[in-house]
Amino acid sequence: MLKRALTGSVFVTVLIFSTYLSPFSLFGLYFIFVLIGTWEYLSILSKHSDFEPNIPLGLILSAFTFLALTSETILGLSSLPFIGALTFSVFVTPLIELYNNKPNPFSNIAQTIFPLIYVALPFGLLILSNSMFPSNSSGKYSSELILGFYFILWSNDTGAYLSGKSFGKHKLFERISPNKTWEGSIGGALLAIGIAIFCGIFFTTLPLWKWASIGLIISVFGSMGDLAESLFKRSMNVKDSGKIMPGHGGILDRFDGLLIASPFVFAFLIFVM
């Protein structure tokens, strides 16, 4: 428990500080997360007898996806070269598989490409969501949206855990996660929406009703992200996605809720702009 608490404290401190400090520190940290998360996903698959994904190519695909989404916003570089490189890499994937002579070639192709959707896209879209709403008319960097996202997501997890422990009786998805209950999910959602409203009072990036809506979105799809990652690990017969964070598992374990919730938050913000 002490190791878990210390690791969690360091992780949260680095994450919040890097997010708040500048868009470049956020970009660098997320780029590392994308590469590690992609490596975790493909490494787990490579240990399964039915899959042989191309790990180096998968890392390249995820890197180009993240750069294509964020380079213009953060680095001031045109995204077109990265989009071109990504397109080339995606369509080279099946050509490489032609010469590998491995079983299940199209499964290998699909699994090599999938991390760009499951890992790189959510991190990139969260940065894009944040960049749409500068804190003032001068367009200076604001970390409010991403910090609020963290607080809401973490409060959803905390509320679900505490409510489930205290009141949980009815299983939510026993086949995938036996410990999760409807009572825990409802408690997590209530706390998440409450924290979202609290964020709306102090963060002026968005009006209060949008923060409350984001709280609801994160509470629903963040929980689904947790279940989706649990489904993946259960199907691969692994406990954690990695060991990079002692007591907490890997990057996919720590950001399972973000990976599904981020695209839905981005879509919501686009629709209500």
Tell me what the structure shows.
- This protein has ten helices and two strands.
- The protein has helices at residues 2-21, 23-46, 55-75, 80-100, 105-131, 144-167, 182-202, 208-236, 251-254, 256-272; strands at 171-173, 177-181.
- The protein has a two-stranded antiparallel sheet with strand order 1-2.
- Helix 2 runs antiparallel to helix 3, helix 6 packs antiparallel against helix 7 and helix 6 crosses helix 8 (208-236).
Break the fold down into its secondary structure elements and pairings.
Elements: H1 2-21, H2 23-46, H3 55-75, H4 80-100, H5 105-131, H6 144-167, E1 171-173, E2 177-181, H7 182-202, H8 208-236, H9 251-254, H10 256-272
Give the CA-CA distance, first to last residue: 44 Å
Radius of gyration: 19 Å
Order of helices and strands: HHHHHHEEHHHH
How many extended strands? 2
The unreliable regions are: none
Structural class: mainly alpha
Shape: globular
Mean pLDDT comes to: 91
Strand content: under 5%
Biggest sheet, in brief? 2 strands, antiparallel
- Tally of DSSP helical segments: 10
- The percent range for helix content is over 70%
Report strand order across the widest sheet: 1-2
